[in-house]
């Protein structure tokens, strides 16, 4: 059954939510390939899913580090363990095992639990950091405009 995005999966960080939706799309494509028993499509989708997920994890971890999220290292470790587990499926697929449905079930369960629990934990720290960055940028822009205006008037 395909994953249908639900509002309770939103973190409130648009870029992260868009990336999560893209991962869901890959999982749904994997399900379609499984249903068609298309090994080539399963392999291709699996490769794309792993590549995209790795870049998502790196991005997410960089946001956490920048925000000073206290459990950044633990979160990164969760990502590393998951990647290792998925890579085992990639290898099994390469060796000819029929891993499609088993992997799909794992991906659905893991992703939904990870978003609702692990990712929900860092949202406050990352959002606060993003708000601070935006405020600093506005202040610099406002100050710059203010100074330029009064330089011209003098």
Overall SS class: mainly alpha
- CATH architecture call: Up-down Bundle
The low-confidence runs, each spanning 5 or more residues with pLDDT under 50, are none
How big a fraction of the residues is strand? under 5%
Radius of gyration: 21 Å
**CATH class placement:** Mainly Alpha
CATH topology: Four Helix Bundle (Hemerythrin (Met), subunit A)
How many H/I helices? 4
**What characterizes the major β-sheet?**
none
Which word captures the global form?
elongated
Summed up, the domain count is 1
> Roughly how much helix do the residues carry, as a percent range?
over 70%
- Termini, distance in Å? 69 Å
State the order of secondary-structure elements, H for helix, E for strand. Answer: HHHH
Q: What is the CATH H-level superfamily? A: Hemerythrin-like
| Mean pLDDT value | 89
Write the layout of secondary structure elements.
Layout (H helix, E strand, L loop, with lengths): L13 H22 L3 H29 L4 H23 L5 H54 L1
Helix pairs in contact: 1-2, 1-4, 2-3, 2-4, 3-4
Tags for this entry?
154 residues, mainly alpha, elongated, Four Helix Bundle (Hemerythrin (Met), subunit A), 0% strand, single chain
């Amino acid at each position: 059954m395909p994953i249908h995005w639900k509002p309770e999966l939103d973190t409130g960080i648009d870029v992260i939510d868009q990336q999560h939706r893209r991962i869901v799309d890959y999982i749904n494509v994997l399900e379609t390939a499984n249903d068609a028993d298309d090994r080539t499509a399963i392999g291709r989708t699996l490769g794309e899913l792993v590549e995209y997920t790795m870049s998502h994890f790196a991005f997410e971890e960089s946001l956490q580090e920048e925000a000073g999220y206290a459990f950044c290292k633990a979160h990164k470790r969760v990502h590393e363990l998951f990647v290792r587990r998925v890579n085992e499926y990639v290898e099994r697929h390469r060796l000819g095992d029929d891993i499609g449905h088993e992997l799909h079930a794992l991906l659905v369960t893991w992703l939904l639990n990870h978003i609702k629990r692990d990712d929900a934990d860092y949202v406050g720290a990352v959002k606060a950091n993003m708000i601070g960055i935006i405020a600093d940028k506005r202040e610099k822009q406002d100050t710059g405009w203010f100074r330029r205006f009064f330089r011209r008037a003098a």
